[in-house]
Automatic annotation (TrEMBL):
Residues 118-142 are annotated as: Disordered. This is Zinc finger MYM-type protein 1. Residues 45-118 form the TTF-type domain. InterPro entries: Znf_TTF (IPR006580). It comes from the Eukaryota. SMART domains: ZnF_TTF. It comes from Trichonephila clavata (Joro spider).
Length: 249
């Protein structure tokens, strides 16, 4: 498949107008198929953007990632390299792959093409003479690598920015997880068991030991039953419920 796609344009391999009958997969409730709508994603403005990277194969009934097939690593291959056909979870999995850092590293050519369509500029250093650095006796036999134009932009700018973005997002996600680990029980404590509430409150109290009173754990358990009782009481006859739902809280 890799050799076949190397000589073809992505649009030729996408099979956008195919009937997708070969993609039929049987689930417990019904059969599901790949659909033409999966070739598009929604933009924040409300419009649709075509997924140029997504390829459908009529012979296998699966979808593939064009750049990952051509440039992806042979080891740790994703489902979009070997063929994806879980249509029940397709929207989530396609979007997840689309936002994956490894996938985006292979989309540099697409981003470059789109940028050139808007600016129509050329790399300023492509026609410049390469300066040769004076070699020293301990440099070794390896030739000096000089990056210019497209490769220089990709290696020196695009990939570092992408890696930094992924690193910062991972760091922020970890911070959110720590906050949720401490405060998450406050959003759904009415659905938790007494033991789960006590465990979460104990951890919360240990973290804020100077601010939380020992009675906090028992009070949260009692508050759970207070909320459950409110949910059983008609709203029009419960002044407390109306107070709790005001914007003052």
């Amino acid at each position: 498949m890799q050799d076949f796609w190397c000589t073809r344009d992505p649009n030729e391999c996408q099979h956008f107008e195919c009937d997708f009958s070969a993609s039929s997969r049987q689930y417990d409730d019904s059969k599901r198929f790949f659909s033409q709508s999966m070739f598009f994603r929604k933009h924040i403005s409300g419009g649709k953007i075509k997924r140029e990277w997504l390829m459908y194969s009529p012979s296998t009934g699966k979808v593939y990632c064009f750049p990952c097939i051509l440039f992806g690593e042979a080891q740790n291959r994703s489902h979009f390299q070997t063929g994806f056909s879980d249509w029940k979870n397709a929207l989530h999995r396609i979007q997840s792959h689309e936002n994956n850092a490894t996938h985006r590293r292979e989309l540099f050519d697409d981003y470059e093409t789109k940028a050139n369509e808007k600016t129509d500029t050329q790399y300023s250093d492509e026609n410049q003479r390469v300066r040769k650095r004076k070699r020293h006796h301990d440099d070794g036999p390896a030739k000096e690598v000089v990056l210019r134009g497209k490769e220089k932009l990709k290696v020196d700018t695009y990939l570092p920015v992408l890696d930094m973005l992924c690193t910062e997002l991972s760091r922020r996600l970890e911070a959110y997880r720590e906050i949720n680990d401490l405060f998450g029980f406050l959003t759904d404590f009415s659905t938790k068991s007494d033991a789960e509430i006590r465990q979460a409150c104990t951890k919360f109290k240990e973290h804020y030991f100077e601010d939380i009173e020992p009675e906090f754990i028992d009070e949260m358990v009692q508050y759970k039953y207070f909320i459950l009782q409110l949910e059983k009481t008609p709203e029009k006859n419960c002044a407390c419920r109306r107070v709790l739902q005001t914007d003052y809280w």
